[in-house]
Every structure is written in C-alpha cells, then in structure tokens.
Amino acid sequence: MSTLVSAAHITKKYQSTTAVKDVSFELQAGQVLGLLGHNGAGKSSLIGALLGSLSHQGEIRVCGLNPVSQRAQLMSNLAYISDVNVLPEWMTVAQILRYTSGVHPSFDISKAKQLLSSTQIALSKKISALSKGMKVQLHLSIIIATDTKVLILDEPTLGLDLIYRDTFYRHLIEWFHDGERALIIASHEVNEIEHLLTDVLMLKQGKVVLQGDMDSLHAQYFIVDALHQHQEVIKQMSPISSQAGLGSTKWLLKSQYRSQAEGLGEIINPNLQEIFIALQKEGV
Amino acid sequence: MHPSFFMLEKELLEHKIVTRLPLFLLVFGLLILGSIVLNTDSISNMSLQFNYQGNDAPDFAQGLSRVIAFGAGAVSLLLSIMYLAKTFRKERQEGSLMFWRSMPVSDLQTHVVKLGFALILIPLICSLLVLSAELLLWFISLTNGQDLISLLGEVSFFGVLLSWLMFMAKMILVSLALLPLACLLLAVSQVSNSPLLVVVVGAYTLKLVSTYVFTFTSLADFIRDISSMPMALLTAQQPLMVFVQVGWLSCLGAYLLGSLCLIVSLLLRK
Lengths: 284, 270
What we know:
heterodimer, A: alpha/beta, 2 domains, four-stranded antiparallel sheet, B: about 270 residues, mainly alpha, 12 helices
C-alpha cells in the first residue's frame, strides 16, 4: 500500500496559543482515519495545515506533494468537505459542473450528472436554492467524479437529517472502495463514524492523547462492571473514568490490569465513544 | 479548451454588470437613435451653430466618435476598478474561497485571469459598445442619407473600423496605466472589506503627509500623476504623450510598486 499522507512533527501556534503540538501520523491507501477531539482540540488547525491553507512547523506530504508550495498540483488528488457550505451560491448546478470540468483535469462531468440524476438536485437549480443536505450531496458528487486520492471531511453531516446522512455515507463508501484511496474524518459524532474507521487520532488541547489502529485501540482498554464494594481495589488500577450505576460502577481501565480485574465483575469491550469521552475528561 | 477560458467564463457569470451595463447603454443609445430616425423631419429642420477659432473647422462626426469612445472608455475604467476591488473580497465574504482553492489552479493563474478579465476582457466588451454605436451611425447614414450627413458629416465603414481600432489602441494604453493600481487593489481587497476607500484615503493621506509634514512634494506629484494617468489617456488627443509627460521614472516606480503589490497579493492568497 502506498503512503498517501505523511505528517511529521506538526506544530501550529497562534501567537501564545499552541493549537497543534508535535503531531505525526501516516496514512496509506485503504485507511480511514478518525480525527477526534472536542471543540478547540486542534482538529481544524491540523486540517488547515493538511490543506496548505495554514502555515505550520513540521513537514506534511500528501500524495508526495507539499500542500503549501505545490497546492495547485495537489488539488488534483486532494478534496475537502466541511460542515460549512463552500460552494458558490450564485452559480447553478450546471455552471459549477461546467467550471469544474474546465479546470479539473480528471473531472468526469457525465459521472457527476449520473450521480446527480439519482437525487432531487436539478442541473438548472441555483446552489442557493438547495437545502444543506443537497449542497453536501452536490459537493460529494463533484468529488466522486474526480479521481481524488485523499478526502478530508470536517463534520460533514452536521445539521443533516438521517436520510441525507445515510445517502452521504453510502456514496462515500462506494467512492472509497472504487480505488486506492484514503479518508480523514473529523467528527463529534463518534458513534456515527466508528464503523468506517480503521485508525484513530485523538487530540486534546493540541496534543495527541490516543493514536493507533482500531484493533489495537480496543486491545488497549476494557471496562469492568463491578459492585461498589470493589471500589477501593479498582482505584488502585488507575481507572481512566467511572460511571456509577445502580449497585455497580463501570470502570474504564488500561488492558494491563485486565487479569487483576477479571474476578471483580463483568468485562466489557468499550466502544470508541466511551474511550473518547473518558480520555477527553481525563485530568479535567 | 484551456482552463483560463472557463475561469474567465466564471468571472463573466459572477460579475454580470460587466456585460449588462454596456448592453443597457447600447439599448439606451439605440432608443435615442431610433427616436431620431423616426423623427427624420426634425433632423432636416435641425440647425447647428458653431463658434470656433483658428483655421480648421470642427468635424462634428469625429467629435461624436470621441464622445462615444470617451463614454465607453469611462464605463470600461469604472467597471474594471469596481471588479478589481470586489473580486477577491466577494470570495472571502461569501465563503466560496475554500472551493476555488480546492481546484487545481495556481494562485498565479488566478491572478493572471483576474487581471486579464479587468484589463483585457472588460475593455474588449466596452469596445463592442463603441463598434455597435459607430456601426449604427453608419447604418443610419446609409438609410437616412443626406439628413444625417448634413448633420454629422460623412460616416464611412472604414471610419467605423478606424474608430474602433483607435479605441482599442487607447484602451491598451489605459490598461497598461491601470496595471499597478489593479495589483494594489487585488492585494488590498484580500485584507480589507472596503479596498477602494482604503486606497483613496491612503493616497490622499500620503499626499498630505508628504507635502505638509515632510515638505516633500515629489511623492504627492507621483501619486497625482499615476492616479490620473488612465483618465488622462482617455481624454488625450495623443495618448502616448501622457506617458512622456508623466516621465519614465514615475512609470518605472509605478510598475515596481505594482510588482510588489502583486507579490504581496500572491502571498496573501496562500
């Protein structure tokens, strides 16, 4: 598998604030990276650096190209969708397709029209007249119709209803399996994207708090649902978080304590959201 | 087709006033000429009285051509300046900047296309206004024969083409004179929401400060010469003389400043 994205020691500072601190990762074709973190964790700054729109320290290569100095070349292989509409509202759908076909060497206008024909988006409609879900769908159709290798999504389904979310992810998966591609998804909706991810990069105040593939991640943590009487014993195991219930408490622990905890209660594999919340709350 | 063609087409779609204003003026002119043609009696009854000094009698047809050319030139200049002040600011304000930057188009190409649109395509569109107006006059002189000829003098097809070519030549010089200001507007419009105001106020402030605080009038002269050059070219009988009057040093200074503004604009776009 070829490396499509490599970021080494990325740091981004805004005057006295460090938005991203020494973040490094690699992404190969076939990988889907979940970029997780609460508001202000540094996700948008990292995405800005990957897109070449923010100056930064460290080195980034996307498809072997520098996002700042080789942006125009890179944009043939890199695309981005955010929660905010970036499509020009004054254009019609047909006009934006014509423009993209003129400036994007690998854009297939017939493929884009074919994708749109299965939706309610008419070519003659102005983009300003489309709903939020339709705009996201149109943007995704434009990207699918290009030979994009890396796609970055920043809260793409924020504000979309369930039907649009379903259609969006269906098209996304089809696009992903259509070639050697990599995907980066930044989202708060951890449960919604968990099934798509192969890797996770979790940020907190600009620093990496969790990084790795999904399998190793699940192997790193476990939950023990133990009766209150075991509280003192479990506290010795440096629990990351706890959630009190009726008669028992769920403790999130590191896997090194698994054998010690097995006799104390039921062992459960945590989902990504549980790990995410626990790590974001840790030390707060 | 080259991507620049699609980029220019997009600019035309986005800034519809560039085509609509000349078209409106043409239709307006047509209505006036139409009313003249329909009232041919009034032409034959019309009398003109000229007072002039010197040996050469004034040529009314040439005078009318000059008025048309000046009007079209002024419209072109106005549209170019309005466009240059608006184009980058609009992308930033409406939030489409990220979309345009997601296309495989370099910042330099974007700048070249925008400058080409303002300094070549807009004058070219306005030249069509001149050509249409002159052709109309010629057509009316053919159909309305002696009445109009007695009013305007001879109007020939060759004269129409010559007026159009003269206008084009003049507009090339106007665009050359406007180039440094165009680069300045592109740079300022990326950081300010009122680029024209910033440039005008900035220029006047510089003029006043250099003249009254530092008693250094050369800077004020330079700003006055360079800023008035496009309009001076439009009204000049011999446009090339305007460049001579401004002087090569001022022109060189303006182009160096323009190059610097272009570099700043490219850096701001990153």
